[in-house]
Amino acid sequence: MENFSAFTPDPLVTELRNPDHPGPAPAVLTFPQARALSLSIRATALVFEDPASRLLFERLERIAPSDASVLIVGETGTGKELIAREIHALSRRRRGSFIAVNCAALPETLIESELFGHEKGAFTGALHSRAGWFESANGGTLFLDEIGDLPLNLQVKLLRVLQEREIVRVGSRQPTPIDVRLVAATHVNLDKAVGAGTFREDLFYRLNVAALDLLPLRKRPGDILPLVRHFMAVYSERLARGAVALSDEAARQLVQYPWPGNIRELENVIHHAILISTDGWLRASDLHLSTPDFYRKTGQDTETGCITALDELRTVLIRLFEHGTENLMETTEEILIRAAYDYCEQNQVHTARLLGTSRNILRARLMRYGFIKNRSQTDTGSEPYDCPDHH
Ligand SMILES: Nc1ncnc2c1ncn2[C@@H]1O[C@H](COP(=O)(O)OP(=O)(O)OP(=O)(O)O)[C@@H](O)[C@H]1O
Ligand SMILES: [Mg+2]
Asked: Where are the domains of the chain?
């Protein structure tokens, strides 16, 4: 199977991981040779062309040499991990390890011993004592990805580690001093998580000493074509395709596309396009842009010169995307179903026809959103929206 990631785990990763961490590896990527890698990234792979990205990079260069904790915030695929590696590479810790841990991928029961290590016999199955990721990153940088998913009890422990600069292995009382710089990342707004009580405010302030906000790609359009050219060069070399040129129409579509999956999606699109292009040209027809065609339209109906209703809807949707509205899929579906059901005066057959769906599917949605009740739950009482429309 094709690998669409620029960072395939290296054999060295396993070498580093095994001595200290026998047994099944959690979903963790480590990067022992971070320095060498980052140097090669810097020479060939970092694209910061848009003025907004240049400002971000300048800020990164100022933050990196200090030992301050950094919080990187950005949508999926915006380059959070790449930025974390760059911070490490530009710090005085560059010769130490860079260790990346995805908090969302670790089961809650394992996370404490993975982070802080454990002593022999600390819990059933702890046959040997083992260093955790903090100890492994000693002298280097620990990257905690998806920090918003760290359970609350672990957040308390992490805060303590940051304050005391020492860890206590599970099953031990002996603190071990550690010298680790923490870089954390999140794709969710931690402010909101603090408001909702799922993220500790004190830890948030501690992590947020230096914050780096990565803009979504659609808000730094000056990066798009340089990234396209960068990934065209990478993949045409990797796939031994020789020189590949970009058609004007392909370039136009790439710039107009909103890139919901950001740089990761762009990389995948270019990789795929290079795979299927045959004649040294990357054309619009080689691009598999995942969201429907309507995103690429400009909002003007070329036939009539009028803004159409669908264009208005697109504009509203993009505004919602930019505001980071939560549960967007459910919320928009609920609004759609509700509006159609009301429009059809609660007639299910008409509503299903209007929406172009089956009555069964419609009924399931009406139940899900509480517009009608499940029959099995409603032996008695009336159903406010379930009018008799069984024709
Ligand atoms: N400025 C950049 N220049 C070149 N390539 C980049 C840049 N930023 C990100 N990339 C590439 O984009 C891909 C995604 O980056 P990365 O994995 O760092 O994103 P992420 O924000 O951690 O994504 P996710 O939220 O999915 O974990 C990687 O292949 C990375 O090399
Ligand atoms: Mg990541």
From this structure: 11-215, 221-291, 309-377
User: Does domain 309-377 fall into CATH 1.10.10.60?
Assistant: yes
Question: Using N-to-C axis directions, what is the helix angle for 224-238 and 248-256, rounded to 10°?
Answer: 120
> Out of 64-78, 134-148, 274-288, 350-364, which region has the weakest mean confidence (pLDDT)?
350-364
Match 């395709």 to its residue by tokens. 241
Query: What pLDDT was estimated at residue 278?
Result: 84
Question: From ligand 1's centre to the CA of 82, what distance in Å?
Answer: 6
**Mutation test residue for ligand 1: of 59, 73, 82, the one with most atoms within 8 Å of CB:** 82
233 alpha carbon to ligand 2 midpoint, in Å?
23
User: Which ligand gives the minimal distance to the CA of 75?
Assistant: 1
- Indicate whether residue 103 lines ligand 1 (CB < 6 A): no
103, 264, 269: which to mutate for ligand 1, most atoms within 8 A of CB? 264
Q: Is the CB–ligand 1 distance for residue 45 below 6 Å?
A: yes
CA 267 – ligand 1 centroid, Å:
9
Q: What is the pLDDT of residues 364-383, one digit of tens each?
A: 889 988 888 876 544 333 33
pLDDT digits (tens, 9 = 90+) for 210-235: 999 999 999 999 999 999 999 999 99
Residue 177, sorted as left (phi over 0), alpha (psi -120 to 50) or beta, turns out to be beta
> Does the beta carbon of 47 sit less than 6 angstroms from any atom of ligand 1?
yes
φ/ψ bin of 135: left (φ > 0), alpha (ψ from -120 to 50), beta (otherwise): alpha
Architecture per CATH, domain 221-291, reads as Orthogonal Bundle (1.10)
Separation CA 326–CA 196 (nearest Å): 13
The dihedrals phi and psi of 343, each to the nearest 5 degrees, come to -60, -35
For the domain 11-215, what is the CATH superfamily, name and number? P-loop containing nucleotide triphosphate hydrolases (3.40.50.300)
